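call fold(seq) -> tokens
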Amino acid sequence: MSAITLFRMENARKMSKMKSSGISLISLSDVIEMGVKNPQPQHLPNKDDTYIICYTSGTTGTPKGVIITHRNILANISGWAYMIDKLEPEILDNKTLMISYLPLSHMMEQVSHWTAIMYGARIGYFSGSIQRLTDDIKALRPTAFPVVPRLLNRLYGAIQSKVQNGNFLVRMIYNIAYAKKLDLLKQGITTKESFWDKLVFNRIQEQLGGQVEIMATGSAPISEEVLQTCRIALGATIVEAYGQTECTAMATITWPGDWTGGHCGGVAPCCNIKLADVPELNYFAKDGKGEIMVRGPSVTKGYYKDPEKTAELFDEHGFVHTGDVGELLPNGTIRIIDRKKHIFKLAQGEYVAPEKIENVYIRSPVLQQVYVDGNSLERWLIAIVVPEPKVLEQWNEEHGVKGRSLKEICADKKAQEYVLSQLHQIGKENKLNSIEQVKRVYLEVEPFTVENDLLTPTLKAKRPQLRKKYKEIMNRIYDENRDS
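ret:
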């Protein structure tokens, strides 16, 4: 290192030792002046030059460096722009204010930034702490909000908890308001100005600043019920997209006029999609089910310095293996139904998809986070549950026990049975079969976080790390319940 550029020269005094080491301290204004006095010819990138090497999230193992070219990023941004102009042409402009809280190392945030900049929108950055995100949102009052499903699931859980714990009048008014706004939604009307918004939903909207007009969600599946509730309660256009780093973020997206959920939209304008047979899981393209394969200008040319993994990534026609199993619905949309790499077989020979189960259980107000896993030598599943403290503490008081810490409550077998019963209830409501329903739970006091390496920066579970952390606990649970 030969020089350091300082934004504020008053910091130079604190760094005086640098000078004695032969390192120059230069002000930003001096750097700008040097550039003005020494103009350089422009070297514009070619479309196939590398724009960025973006690493995968590491949910299935070691992150891989995905080479994203200028062609890739421009194709994806153009796809978003085409859909926005078709969806609501005036929803993004120079009055738009987008909040940024996801890391720029994630392609969803990269695409969100460039799309906002292309429309002349403003971008506000959060303070750096997820714990303070709600306060940041209320202060900024964004109109555009890229959102991960976990946040929408939490909002849905809070709404359901409030309604269920309310009296008969509260529940009745909410149900009427919900039905009235659902009628509007089915007519293609998204609003915050109805009588029912002023009576019921405006307090929910204020939790996100009260100004949100458009949200884009991706990175993990979201249920139809959660998506519909958030559209109604927030009075905002919410589009769902599906993709991967290898596809520069987006491969499918909610099409204009589609207010339904339970799918991740139709094929995006920047790529082509086909389904491939997965015979070992009994999925066949002729039945409209198979591995989602993506090809087009938004698809990467490979992994950085990893020719072996790059060769595995593509089929003979240049389509990327996503590893996700999808179903083509009659209206042309795609539903994610399984994940090849996360599916495993139990001792009785039945395959289970833990993420599908987690996406059902996460809707329960009793928990904050859940990780479902099993052992191919065993016949049933276990859930590691991070409970919602207020719910467990309320349960504790109702059972006449006072003065216990959350850790002590979590160790109580009756508390574990209560949480398990709540999971079974919501699982039954969402048609999980008996094999998919977990048979035991372990209550974990400490949440899964980015800091403890159990979540990616976009709040997705790191399954290899979770499996390693809870391996001994799960083995003990199996041993203690060998006859179950």
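The first strand starts at residue 3 and ends at 6.
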